[in-house]
Structure formats: structure tokens, C-alpha cells
Amino acid sequence: MKQVQFSMSRWMQGSGPDSEIAISSRVRLARNIRGYTFPCLAADSETEAVKNKISSIVAGIDDFSDFNYWSMDTLTELEKRALVEKHLVSPFLAAESKHGSLLLRNDEAVSIMANEEDHLRIQAILPGLQLEEAWREASRYDDLLENKLEFAFDDHYGYLTACPTNIGTGLRASVMLHLPALVFTRQINRLPGALSQVGLAVRGLYGEGTEIIGNLVQVSNQVTLGQSEEEIISNLFSIIRQVIEQEQGARQMLLDKQRAKLADKAWRAFGLLKYAQLISSQEAIQLLSDLRMGYDLGLIKGVSRQLLNELLVLIRPACLQLLAGRELNESERDIERPLQIKKALERRHNQESAGKI
Questions:
Q1: CA 210, 10, 305 angle in degrees (round to 5)?
Q2: CA 320 to chain centre
Q3: Which of the four pLDDT bands, split at 50, 70 and 90, describes residue 181?
Q4: Is there a contact between 347 and 339 (Cβ–Cβ < 8 Å)?
Q5: Segments forming the whole domain that contains residue 323
């Protein structure tokens, strides 16, 4: 069975609309198979039956030929956590699922989780602000599976899910945003309250229950019932565009008034990332945020959005250990982190020198 390795996911490319602020767009569909108990209440024999049923059906569909399959119980804890850090699976699937499994497309833009909170979680994640495109990707595989499986569906309530907050469309859409100017000007403090009034939630880098660090936030819909999928995507897109415009305005104001300070902050971050001997995970995320803002404002060169996105993931504990090829304690990770950062920066420099970018 193929091992989980650190590789470049499509969402890390740094391309797509508004990619200077919108890092990635993600759409997830929750589905359950009629006649089977929800995974949280099901016996082991039933979750195993669901897992086998899904893998058997997928094996017979040509459109899944470019997917890799993993049974979660065959992966190490390190491999599972690395998949979470890359935003390819949920923390629940990695830590708590019974007979969980993963189908992951080769470009890592689409992942299908079996026996998470629901029998199926179909996820698409793309770079930049591409909510509609991500929804189309997820819907394509949803349709393929629904042609072979009878999903639990009610004419009044819609798709039935283990958690009542997902009932209806079963659709959760989110955009990861880099909002350093709104944080610096403290406008970010008004954002959660304002967005909650329009049915949206603001969360940290890894979703529900995680703190906002490195000026990175996820904005997602909370309402799945009473709106169509098109309405959910359209409403979220509209609000995200407003947030992006606010961030752009705040960046321009800071650039006009504090250009030298912003440049100094970015270059100091670049210097620490290149030459520091010890860097914690949280410090690295903040330094990358400062460097990213400097790059996006045209104050610094020598990096790219793709490199910054790659660094954002490889500095995380599990991915860092996969790259190192061994398990590391916290102190060892703080030593290994700057080494891996330097390697990534050197690759970028070598590619520039060779004229490949």
C-alpha cells in the first residue's frame, strides 16, 4: 500500500482569483447510505460493511481510477496527522473513526472520507477564491456515488446527517483567508459578530475549536437547511468578496502610512526564516504571515505564494516529521523546522537560477 508522503496539494499552488488574500476554497458534502446506522451509533460490523461497500463500488467506476485508497487503520498516527495538517481529512476521521477510509485524488484536490461522522464526506479544495468550482468538483463525485448508492434523503428535510446542523443540503463551504491588515487595525474584532448575523462562522486555521494564529481565518456557512446549494455558495462568495475588499482597503491604508514599517517587518521575518536555528510552529506561522503580507504588497521578493503555502504546511509537526523521516519530540522539531524551511527556500532559489520559474 502506498505510504502517505509530503507532497504538493493543488490548493497550495497559490493561484486562483484573489489568491493574495484567499488561500483556498473548500466544499464538503455529507452523505449517508439508506438502511445503515450512522457511524457514531453503528456496531463495528456495520461500519466495516459500509467501508467495504464503498470501496467495492468505487473500484468499479472508471472516474475513480486516479484516486489512491487508504484504510485509516493501516496508517501511522503521524501519517494521519499529516493528512489533517494538509486539510485533506478531518481530525475526526484521523482520530476517532471506526473502519474509516480515504480516497484521495492524485492532485489532492478531492478527498472522500468514509465512516467519518457520516458514511461519506466528499470534499474538494482548490486554490484562491473558487467556491463554485470546488462545489462542482464535489458534486461530480457526489453524483457518481449517488448513481450506485441510495442516500438517506427526506423530501421535507433533504439529506439526513448524523449532526442536525448538517441536515438539508449537507453542504459546508469555507474559504481560508489571510487578513493581517484587519488584524493589525483591529477591524477583525467586529468580523465574527457581523458574519454570525448572516449565518456564517469565523474559525481558526483547522476549523472548529481552533484559534486564529498567523492572521489566518476560515469563514464558512452555518446554515444547511432552507437554502439551496446554489444559494449557500452564492451568499458565502458575496460576503467573502466584501471581506476581501475590506482587507485590501486596510492594506492600502497601512501601505500609505506605514510602508517602511511593513517592509522592515517582512524583511525581518524573511531573515529569521532563513537564518534562525530554532523556530516553534506558532512563531513560524506568524513569520510566514509577515513575509506573505510583504510579498503581496510588493515590498519583498525571493518567494512566491506557492512557496509560502508549502511552508505553511511543512512547518506543522506531523508533516515536518514526515520530511525528516523520523519521529521528533517538540525540541527536536524546533531544530528541524528551520532546516526544512532553508531547504524549501534553496529549492526556490535553484529553480529561479535555472529559469524554471
A1: 75
A2: 17
A3: very high
A4: no
A5: 258-353
Angle at which helix 281-296 crosses helix 330-353, to 10 degrees, equals 30
How far is 246 from 9, CA to CA, in rounded Å? 29
Separation of alpha carbons 64 and 307, rounded Å: 29
pLDDT at position 352: 62
DSSP at 13: G
Residue 64 CB: number of other CB atoms within 10 A? 18
The helix (run of H) or strand (run of E) holding residue 171 is: strand 171-178
> 298 by DSSP, 3-state: which?
coil
For residue range 322-342, list pLDDT tens digits in order: 999 999 999 999 999 999 999
The number of distinct structural domains making up the chain is 1
C-alpha cell at 258: 506605514
* 41 neighbors 71 (Cβ within 8 angstroms): no
Residue type, 128: G
Question: According to the model, what pLDDT value does residue 328 have?
Answer: 97
Exposure of 275 in the CB half-sphere (CA atoms within 13 A): 6
Is residue 281 domain-resident? yes
Rounded Cα gap, residues 105 and 134, in angstroms: 14
Mean pLDDT over 40-68 rounds to: 95
**Is residue 207's pLDDT more than 60?**
no
Name the residue among 8, 3, 5, 4 with its Cα closest to residue 344. 8
In a domain, 303, yes or no: yes
Question: In the 8-state DSSP scheme, what is residue 41?
Answer: T
The verdict on residue 347 lying in a domain is yes
**pTM score, whole prediction:** 0.92
Q: At 232, is the pLDDT very low, low, confident or very high (cuts 50, 70, 90)?
A: very high
DSSP assignments along 81-128, one per residue: HHHHHTTSS-HHHHHT-SS-EEEEETTSSEEEEESSSSSEEEEEEEES
* 60 within domain boundaries: no
Question: How many whole angstroms separate alpha carbon 20 and alpha carbon 40?
Answer: 40
CA angle 158, 141, 313 (to 5 degrees): 105
Contact (CB, 8 A) for 173 and 27: yes
> Using one digit for the tens of pLDDT, what is the confidence trace for 130-173?
999 999 999 999 999 999 999 999 999 999 999 998 999 999 99
Grid coordinates of 217: 481565518
